[in-house]
Amino acid sequence: MSDASPASHIADSAPLAPDRLQAAVDAGILTEHQADRLVEFWAAGEAASADVSALDVSYADREEVRFVRGFHDIFISIGLVILMLGLFYGLQDVVPAWGIAGVCAAATWALAEVFARRMRLALPSFLLSVAFTPFFFAACFGLVVHQDLTLADPGRWLHEHEGLFVIPMILVVIAGSVLFYRRFKVPVGIASITAGCLFLGAVIVETVVPGLIASWNSLFFLVLGLLTFALAMVFDARDPGRVTLNSDKAFWLHLMAAPLIVHSVLDLMSGVAGAETSAYYTAVIVLFLVLAVIALVVDRRALLVSALSYLGFAIGYLIAETSVSSEATFAVTLVVLGAVILFVGSGWHQLRRLLLRPLAGSPLLAYVPAPN
């Protein structure tokens, strides 16, 4: 009989593999909550025993995007894209548009059974999860409207039909997205479900108060963006160490919330300061700085991505006001924008430490990653 304890076998084994943990969850050996806690425990143990002299942990990336593990994932993904394009174009003269969407949705589910549930390939699972909800929505929507999927005036159509058919259809789509997520457990599925719920809310508002969204378009989408951001922070607060799938779920929600917030706020600013003016572009730069502070606090670079294009236009406009040539304006804009990105990116951890230092001991720090 071996004298080695179970703990010694665990210690000698390879680090916890996400696919094996998920297999244990699927087999009923662990619950999702237990799997997340096991990952946190393992990560804490590795951090405590690591030789920090061998690695500069100040540059550890907590915002790791785990949707590709190797070129095998990419190779399979290329095949999936080609297959779906073949289905789409091959059925154009055979079935109506909603029928093509339905076939593609069914094919997406079938392929996910192989590549997401059985083989657990990261990038193919991501692509199939992203594709399912739009295909399923297009199929259901086509069945409801009995016409081309692109409507000239969807708001008027909803008003005329009082949402009686559309709202149940959206509920069916959300239910399909939930089932897909429950079956394959791909983190980006949470973003698909959230998008469906936001769309349902918009349809209900438009049905109850026709024209309200059109009249308050920017403010309405700002509210949607803030709700999405709040949900992302719920998942982030469950995993401040960024070691479980809650972090991945939050990442995609942040990526969805950012453009809703940025575009809405800038649209509101253009109404106050006037579009294409120095005051407006100065406000753009101020907004970028505010977003940078928020992004640093919550440790999410995704919040800044949507604002970069606006920042580039703002820098370009303000430089052009100095009456330099268009070529020089373009070159200087790129140099300044690139320098800003490099400065924020390379100094991210140092900036976080500086920003969070006054908040030491604050309850806020229990919900965001500790500064490196």
Automatic annotation (TrEMBL):
Keywords: Membrane, Transmembrane, Transmembrane helix. It comes from the Bacteria. The chain crosses the membrane at residues 71-91, 97-116, 123-144, 164-181, 188-213, 219-238, 250-273, 279-298, 303-320, 326-348. This is DUF2157 domain-containing protein. The keyword Membrane applies.
